Amino acid sequence: MKSEEQISGVLLIDKEPDMTSHDVVAVARRCLNQKKIGHCGTLDPMATGMLILVLGNATRIQDLLMAEDKEYTGTLTLGATTSTQDKEGEILETKTVPEFTPDQIKAAFEAFQGDLYQLPPMVSAIKKDGVPLYKLARQGKEIEREPRFVRVYDFEITRIALPEVDFRVVCSKGFYVRTYAHDIGQKLGCGAHLSALRRTRSGHFKLLPGKFASFEDLKQGRRDIVESSIYSLYEVSKMRGA
Question: pLDDT category, 120, cuts 50, 70, 90?
């Protein structure tokens, strides 16, 4: 592909921690010399894993791709609640973590499966009168939020090493995994926050060898690697059974 041509397709990036989703888009625009690039589903700076970029005409299906279910792996740490519900925030309260049995922890997770309402955190990209809530939160403001209808399709507890619990969750669009961790901590009575998060799947997309690019590939301008990882609109349509 020539540099002056607009590329259309879907590019999966394995996002690194300590960067925003917008940072990834900005670097992708420089690497591909193309302005028309968007992303599907914001990942918090601390999170890693799949960030879907839509290029050129693929921006037309951005909402369609964002609406699909997602899978995450994560770690929650019991005994401390934070201002952001994850490890990036200030610790608000600490409590002793009892010697929970695996069954007790599983029961807490089971309380948050299927259809449920989730109160979005203040530190989120949801807007109030055009201003993202996280900007208001930085000003020390607390705004009333409407609970959102979400769904947990499946979960699995993969490791218990108190105070840490590793898990996998498959959920709907608009689901906040850090709120999930916080709520499970409240259910157990000792509080919790999200200490690690990785998105492993979004809709039909997985991070398969040769079909994703790293942030380093974008940053170093490895255009050949990046372009070879792009799914064409035809491939995307075929994957989705259209």
Answer: confident
